[in-house]
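Forum: Protein Structure Q&A
Topic: Joint prediction for protein chains with partners

I've read a bunch of threads here and the consensus seems to be that you should model interacting components together rather than docking separate models afterwards. I'd like to see that in practice. Below is the full input, 852 residues plus whatever partners are listed. Could one of the regulars post the assembled result?
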Amino acid sequence: MLSYTLRKLLYFIPVVWGVVTAVFILLTVVPGDPARLLMGQRGDPETLARIRADLGLDLPLHRQYIRFIGDLARGDLGTSYRNNEKVSTAIAERFGATLRLAFWAMILASVIGVAAGILSAVKQYSLFDYSAMFIAVAGVSAPVFWVGLLLLLIFAYGLRLLPGVGYGDGSWRYLILPVITLGTRPAALIARLTRSCMLDVMNQDYIRTARSKGLAERTVILKHAFKNALVPVNTIIGTQVAELLSGAVLTETIFAWPGVGRLAVEALVARDFPMIRGTVIFMALLFLATNLLVDLSYGLVDPRIRYD
Amino acid sequence: MKKSLRTLCRLLLLFALFSAMPSASGETLPLSGGVLRWRDVGDPPKLDPAGPGDTSSGRGIYLMFETLVENAPDGERLLPRLAESWEGSEGGRVWTFHLRKGVRFHSTIRGRPSANGGREALAADWKYSFERLVRTKSPRAYFVDMIQGYKDFAEEKASEWTGIKVVDEHTIRFELDYAFAPFVSILAYNAFVVVPREDAERPGADFSFNPVGTGPFILEKWEHDQRLVYTRNPDFWMRDAHGSSLPYLDGVEIVIIPDDTIAYEEFKKGNIDVLPELPDEFYADAKQRFGDLLQGRPMLGVYYVGFNCAKPPFKDNRTLRKALNYAVNKQAMSDYLLEGRYAPSRGVLPPGVPGYSPDLEGYEYSPETARKMLAEAGIREGFQIELVVNNNLRHRTVAEGLQGLLAEFGIDLRVSVVDWGVHLDLVDRGETQMYRMSWIADYADPDNFLYVLFYSENRGVKGNYSYYSNDRVDELLVAARVETDFDKRMALYREAERIIVDDAPWMFLFYYTTSLLGGERVKDMRLPLFGQHATPLEAVWIAR
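Posted by a regular:
Agreed with the consensus. Here's the joint model:
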C-alpha cells in the first residue's frame, strides 16, 4: 500500500505539470489584457507599458513560462495582479470557509443519500421508493441557484427562522441553508446510486445464502449487502467531495459565503492570471488527493482489493 | 430601589426626547452613534488611492482619505477640503494651496497603532503622496502630467517631481508646463489625496490592506468577501454648524452581498441600511414600496453607442451615422426597457457639467428623416452591422432594444456579447463597427468629456474609441484647455460639442443616473453628482 501511495504521488507531478501548462497556455490565448483591466476604462499608453513591464507581461512567452514554473517549484504561487495579495494567502484565508461548507454538505448528502438509497432498495416499488426517487430526480435536476434562492425566500425572508446571507462569525445558524443547498444534488446522486448498487447486490447468491442461514434481515442488508455495494458509492462520494471542495461557486455567491469558488470566479473576470493559476493548481491538487484517498479506502471497504 | 428605578426611567425618557428634539431654529438635531450598513457586490480590489479607481474601492477611499478640494454636491463649483484656500498666478501656470492646519492622520489601523502616530498632515506629505502615485505606477498619475517634471520623474530620470514645491509646512505649490484651466478640478479626484509615508512604506504591511488617511473613518476590520468595518475617526477635523464633532456615525460596515435579489431581500428585512445602484428589475417595486427613500439623480455620465469612424460602413459616412441616430426612439427605450430611469441625451455633456447646453437639439426620434437619410446613404433592406456590448443585463437589454428598433428600417443589427476585458481590447484597437460604452467623469469639467473622448490624438486606449477626428474640434479643444477666462472657455466647448453632435460619431443615447435606496432610519444622506460611491457620510446620522 505504501509503494502504491508513493507511485500515485509520483503520478501527481506530470498531471499537475500538465494542468499548469494548459492553464498557462489558455490564459495567454484568451483575449483580454490584465494590465489594461488594471488601468481602468482609459489610460495613457506609457502607463500601460509600465504596468505591463511591472507584471512581467512584456516578456516573451517562454520567459514568462520559465519564470512561472521556477516560482512554482519554490512553492510560490505568485501575487495577485488585482490587489498584490499573495495567492497562497488568499486561498488559505478562504479555504477554511469552503472546507466547512463542503464537509457539512457532504455529511448531509452521505447520510441522507445512503439512507434513502438503502431504504428504497429494500422497499423497492413501494410508496417510499417512488417518493424518494422522485425527490432524487428533482434534486439532481434542480439548479443550485434556484434551490438556494427558494430556501432563502422561505426560511430566511418568509418565515424568518434562519439568518439570510453571510458567514456570521462562524455561527452554525448561517451554515444550515448553504449546506442544504450544496448538499441537495450530491444527496440525490448518492441516493440513486446506492439504490441501484444495493438492488444489484441484493440479487446475488451470497445474499440468498445469508438469508437461508437465517440471519436477521438487518444483518443481511447492512453487513452483507451494503458493505458490498459500498465501493461504487464510495467513488461517487469521493468525486463529490472533490467537486465541493474545489469551490461551490453558485452557493458561495448566493449566500455571500467567502470561499475559494468565488475567489476563482472574481479572478477570472479580472484576468488576474496568478490568482487563476493558483486556484486551478489548488483545485487540481485537491482532486488528485481526494482520488488517492478514495482509491486507498477501497482496500478498507473490500479486503479483496489489492494495491499491487 | 423602586424610586431610583423610576428616576432612571425618567432620565432615559428625557434623554430620548431631547436627543431627537427640534432645536430652537426648528431643525431636528442629528444624533451621534450607530453603524451604517452599506451593501457592496464584492471585495474592493484595492483600498490604495493609487489604485484603478473602481467604485468599490472608491467607496472605501472616500471614507478614509481626503483631497485638497472637493466638488460641491451640484458639481458646478469647487469647495475647499484640506486646502483652506488656493490661488493661481502667472496666467494659471502656477497654483498655490494653503493647507488647513490641525488635520491629523489616522492614529490606528485595523486595531493597532499606525506608524505615523496620528501626526499632522503637512505640505511635505502632499508632495510625497503625489510622487507616490507615479512611483507606484498609478493608472491615474498621468491626469496631472502637466505638472512640470512629470515625464522625467515617471521615467526615473529625476529623483523628485520638480514641479511640486513645498513652500512651508502648510503651503504647497504646483508649477505647470502650461496654463491648464481644469487643473484645480482634477485635484478633487480621489487619487489625489494625502497619505503618510511611514504607513505607506511600512514593512510587511501592504498599504492596500492597511490604508491610512485623514478622512472621517478608519479601517478597523477587513474580512475578505464578507465585510469591511470602518470606525469613526476620533481626531477628524470637521465640525457641524453647532460645533459638534463629525462624523455622527460610530462606524460604517460595508456588507458584501454578490447577488442582487438577495441584497434587495436583505434590505427589506432591515439587515442593511443602504442599497446603492438598485438594479432595474427592482426599481418599480422599490419606488412603490419605499417612495422617497429611493433617491435617484442624473450623474456626470453618458451612455452611448459609438460608431467606428475609421472603418466601413461608418468611415466618411456621416449621413448613415446621423440616420441611425434619428432611427432610435430613446424615450421609448428608457420607458419600456429601463423603467424610465434614463433621460435621453442630446449631446455629450450631461447636465451638471459646466458648459452643458440645454438648448442643444440633438437627434429627436424621426423615422421619416431616418428613412430618407438611409436612402441617401445607399442603405438597402437587410443591411448588416455588428454591435459589440460587454456582458451585463442592462447593456444586453439596450442592445436587444436597438436590434428591434433598427429592424423597422430593414437593418439587421448583429449583437456580440463579450466580457469587459475583451470589450476594452476590441474598442482600443478599433476593431468594432459599433460598440456600447459609457463615460463617467473623473472631474467636473467639459475637458474630461470632450478632450478625452474626441481629441484626435486620444484615439484608442486614451478614450477616443470612435477614432473620431475633426481638425476644427481639435483646435477648439486645445484652445479651451489653456483658456483661463471661464466664459470664453465654455463658449469654445459649446462650439466643439455642437460640431461633434453634428458629425454624429456616437449614437447619443442617455445621460447616466445614479441611485441609492436608504433605510428609513438613515438621515441626511444625499446622492452626489459623481455617483453613489462618493456619497459623503460624515454628516449622515441614524435616527433611533
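The longest strand of chain B covers residues 294-307.
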